[in-house]
Amino acid sequence: MLTRAKSFRVGDCFLPELKQHGYDGEFWQKSSSPTQRYKFPLDGCALFYKTSRLQLLESDTIRYEDSQGLKLHQGGQICRFKDVDAKQDFVVVNTHLKAKSGAINEKLRVLQIRQLLQRINTVQKRSSTPTILCGDLNADPLSETYSILHENFVSVYSLVCPCEPPHRANELDVLEFCDAVTDGGAPAEPLFTTWKFRSKEGERQRTIDYIWFNTQNKLVPQRRWSTPSQTTIGPNALPSALYPSDHLPIMCEFRWKASESD
């Protein structure tokens, strides 16, 4: 899944290439974006899935509203899939919340996340349906937005894993196994998921990107991507030749529990 994916990148680059490998995708486009200042198409959220493994049962989008009911530019995707091998349904949510710090913007993010949770409940069909929620929340682990989500979900990166191998960007064994995990609780997250230098703000490191799951179901994390250190990235921060976005990629593999005791 991608947040802030550019529409031309999805239609002309990602989707044609991924379809050659058996994937299909969904894209939700914002109504307005800072990308327009530079004459780029609107960005949004994109979700790709392997058609031989997953069947798309339902695809919904949400565009958030302010307290007066006026439409905002932010929103996201809510998709329900069937795992054709496991014969189990689950929901995947991808969202991008209001950017910028400050109390006013945090109040908007709180409003947005409450709207999203309400919409998720309508798509889940029943409360036991496994749900994975991903996105750029623009909210750090000490925020009210994070706290609200933590009442309903567990962040994959707040889990305490048995081991933490060093990050090596060119190898797949940078995944941390999460077979025996416990909820570390807030705010045990990566030191940062975005790190950049800006002319007005200077250097900024923030943790604002997350993968969440609800714990009362059969779909559980198995292993997650170990985020790189500041030393690995280098002194010039993000983006770079090795990491071409100002946000780090995060990833988690999930598995179906064989039994309730698993």
UniProtKB/TrEMBL annotation:
InterPro entries: CCR4/nocturin_mRNA_transcr, Endo/exonu/phosph_ase_sf, Endo/exonuclease/phosphatase. One of its GO terms (molecular function) is 3'-5'-RNA exonuclease activity. It holds the Pfam family Exo_endo_phos. Keywords: Hydrolase. GO terms for biological process: nucleobase-containing compound metabolic process. SUPFAM superfamilies: DNase I-like. The keyword Hydrolase applies. Residues 43-247 form the Endonuclease/exonuclease/phosphatase domain. Belongs to the CCR4/nocturin family. This is Endonuclease/exonuclease/phosphatase domain-containing protein. It comes from Ceratodon purpureus (Fire moss).
